[in-house]
Amino acid sequence: MDHAATTATRVEVAEAMVPYMTGHFGNPSSLYDLAKDSREAVDAARVQVAAAIGAAPKEIYFTSGGTESDNWALKGVAFAKRSKGNHIITTAVEHHAISHTCAWLEKQGFSVTYLPVDRYGMVDPEAVEAAITPETILISVMMANNEIGTIMPIAEIGTVARKHGVLFHTDAVQAAGHIPIDVQEMNIDLLSLSGHKFHGPKGTGALYVGPGVRLDPLMHGGAQERGRRAGTENVPGIVGMGMALSLAVAEMVENAERVTALRDRLAAGLLAIPETYLNGHPQKRLPNNVNVVFAYIEGESILLLLNRKGIAASTGSACSSASLEASHVLMACGLPHDVVHGSLRLTLGEETTEADVDYVVAAVAGVVQRLRDMSPLTPTELRSK
Ligand SMILES: *Cc1c(COP(=O)(O)O)cnc(C)c1O
User: Fold this and answer.
1) pLDDT (tens digit, 9 = 90+) per residue, 261-270?
2) What's the Enzyme Commission number for this chain (predicted)?
3) pLDDT tens digit string along 14-25?
4) Known catalytic residue: 319?
5) In this structure, is the dihedral angle defined by the CA atoms of residues 374, 379, 380 and 385, taken in order, positive or negative?
6) Ligand 1: distance of its center to the CA of 370 in Å?
């Protein structure tokens, strides 16, 4: 129930990777035949990733994951366009790979606007347009939110960005393989992907860089990735990521339909628990995301008790759950601080069954009741008789 944190590498993907660690282990930059196999495998994966988002293969750059892609897009544009302006527009609900990078860029003298969102976590394209100044060099808005699953109006924001001649980056890490992506139709200039969020291997990612986009390198060194991203290619990882993404996209429509039905069954089951509220947009949300808050109790306690029942779930974002910080996403949606702490994120996967969903609903209902019985905040009518 935590597929937004990571997914298992598909068996056929792992099997396709093995030959590139053993037999075909050549360095793609070398000149002999063994290297040619690796080079061709990387090129084939580039074609697969490009096809999945409507890009040309030469516009795809392989990275070490979503975090690197986000860092590279923001820092790369910021430093390449420094002489043109110093203003970046983003939202208050981005992944930390974006928001912490923006905070660092502010320390380097850039100015960042963090746009507010509505109660569903949605940013208004008109607010994006209104925030543009002659100094604006980049807009970065995530395609789908990793905590609450809300799908942003990316095509509308792309239109605004293009109209004003401002570069547009989107973190599509949670969206890829779940909803259709077309960088041309959506007027996207830069787009981040991460392999392990769509049943590919961990430590793999890609950045799409559209035609004519000037971008400083993040990694300096050799001439790999056409001189823009140094470092010997992670050939097995790249092979796995390419295959995982093309499989995810090929199966997307069928999978989304099945998972959406499970999601709705799960949400209905949880919302039947008294004083439980759905976070994120009721319709414009990822097919696999359910995020709810339960009044009067703490998300961390829910997780610990669910773990004992063999259920892996998340509260707030996985990256901040060790710090017990209140979710910046739920706060931005206007939820009060005490309520934010009672949030639970459940994210389904292609292997999730109806029986899993029913087991989880029953387990959560039991856990919530137990914690409410223990909480001094719980009103009498919600306590067990
Ligand atoms: C997981 C995630 C990232 C980070 O990707 P990694 O490959 O784990 O570095 C970035 N953005 C979003 C929205 C994510 O969900």
Assistant:
1) 999 999 999 9
2) 2.8.1.7
3) 999 999 999 999
4) yes
5) negative
6) 34
